[in-house]
Amino acid sequence: MTARKFSLGTVFLYGTLVLLALFFLMPAYMAAVTALKMPADISLPTAWEWPSVVNWSSFSDALAKLRPDFINSLILTICGTAGSTVLGSLNGYVFSKWKFKGSDVIFTLFLFGMFIPYQVILIPLFQTLRAMNLYGGLPGLILAHIVYGLPITSLIFRNFYAQIPTALIESARLDGAGFFSIYLRIVFPLSIPGFVVTSLWQFTQIWNEFLWGICLTRHTANPITVGLANLAGGQAVTWNLPMAGSILAALPVLAIYIFLGRYFIRGLLAGSVKE
Amino acid sequence: MNQPRRAGSIPGAARPDQPDLLMREASLDKLKAFLTLLPSMILIGVFVYGFIGNTIWTSMTDWGGSGAMALNPQKHFVGLENYIDLFTGFLGGNFRQDLVNAVYYSVMLLAGAVGLGMFIAILLDQKPKGEDLLRTIFLYPMSLSFIVSGTIWRWLLAPQGGVNVLPKYFGFKPLTFKWLSSQAAILVFNWQDILRILAYIAAFILIMVGVFLLRKDQGKAIKRWLIPGIVLGALVWIFGGLIPDALFMEEEHGFNLATLGIIIATIWQYSGYTMALYLAGFNGISQDLRDAAMLDGASQVGYYRYVAIPMLKPITISAVIILSHISLKMFDLIFAMTGPDNAATGHPALNMYLTTFRGNEFSRGAAIAIVLFLIAAMFIVPYLVGQYRQQGRR
């Protein structure tokens, strides 16, 4: 066994994996090192070197600038996630257990909404929100995230509910349970893992979204991604602030990914239609 | 199973005294199911299909200019004028350059992210020590926002720092490549020739399909694909001069080297995703099959080349569809990496935003959006139809 460990193949395997891991960690290291430097110590040729004096104040400075956006994103993400998962769960329930004539076609038409480049609906969305007096604030953005989240949440829940045996539903119907009581008493209690997967997926998507954030909100309702882009986009910018801001903007989703990675990956796989 | 079975159809299970009531309840429940779906159907109908229709309409008007932001802007129908402008007009030059760049960008991103993801998945499929940790490292970029990764990569690709100074630490000279600002273009072609080039591409595809089908159905492959392909290619070669120029003057477009930095950042962000897809696929292949392949004398390479990867064709298709969709709407990353004002790394998605919301040229922006949409639909519609048919068969 020990002899095999040092075979050429194993050396190649581990060597390649370590190199790749370093490549993938490189941006994270760069962000951390730059965020921890004193602004005066940041220079291009020494960008990779560890700071001589560790300076934590970039984080509090960045947070002071990004706090309103951070709170906006938090409200936006929680409302958008809740709305789209609840509706998606009901849709998935119908699509998997209450199929009617044409429901498969409707489902496919739903899925199409997931794959369109959002530029194609941006102008009418902007107009509609303006006409509804929702342009510029968070409610309009929340509405957009709920509607365009429906395809993916319906898909994940439909695939999830397909695993619940139909016999269970049928026996409940024989006992006199109707559409909603079956959902509330049987399907919903069974779908906690489905809710976890879908919520994590939606949380990440909405938190990371930028295009609608920049096109549909005024300054006071900017989500964190727009705040970060503004922070990093200035001309005479010292790089410690954008780097600290990047880390702050990434923290909630990174935390989800690290602590609930299993569910995150399931959402990822469920998002690729094939199940 | 397509429809939930009527309770009454299970012999001996229905309550014999009131079968009618059960039937009526069942249809009432079906109504409830339909009504539950109805709000979402209306929302998707309006926000997806209605809006797409509206954008198509907008792209055929002259909505733009100084009065564009008025609540009731003046719009007039102008037909396909915006599209003709984009593809042949003087002001559309930027768009044409962006479109060319986006095609190269998509192809390289697809090759890079699928290739690297598959490679990492094969490495991790050897079950190395620390597999869990490595998987976490390879996948974390996927959870980040494009704005976050774009900001960091912009700093990493700064001309006199970042990646360029890395070789210094190994005793080499620093690189001098201008990652995000290079103006050098490779693979240049003349947009004037676009119709001839498209004809060559069509001939090439016909011939490739013919060669591919040669083993299956020789007669059909030669008659339907090979001969038309060769004839088309020859005709274009001989009489190519008769095909009209797309433009009245020469206009050269190519792949801009500054885009390489953006491609690297996108591959960094998305190869973990393809890795996860392939890893799930590899795990789904039974150990028995693997053992059988090994017993038949297949090497490790042979196992992946001839058994595992062909089995995962649906995963490859999914990955290609999802990645091309992402590359077509790529906006955030380019915005964060090169700012909104750099034309060297342009992309139609970014161009659409700038045209519409900075330039107030709504109808022109809508036309760009529709072009993007049509390209995306070319991939997605066949894919979704295939998925739908598969469901029907199940």
Automatic annotation (TrEMBL), chain A:
Its main location: membrane. InterPro entries: MetI-like, MetI-like_sf. It is found in: Cell membrane. It is a multi-pass membrane protein. Keywords: Membrane, Transmembrane, Transmembrane helix, Transport. It holds the Pfam family BPD_transp_1. SUPFAM superfamilies: MetI-like. The chain crosses the membrane at residues 12-36, 70-93, 105-126, 138-161, 182-203, 243-265. It comes from the Bacteria. Residues 70-260 form the ABC transmembrane type-1 domain. Coiled coil: none annotated. Belongs to the binding-protein-dependent transport system permease family. This is Carbohydrate ABC transporter permease.
TrEMBL record, chain B:
It comes from the Bacteria. The keyword Acetylation does not apply. Gene3D superfamilies: MetI-like. It is found in: Cell membrane. The chain crosses the membrane at residues 33-52, 102-124, 136-156, 197-214, 226-243, 255-282, 303-328, 362-385. Residues 99-385 form the ABC transmembrane type-1 domain. This is Sugar ABC transporter permease.
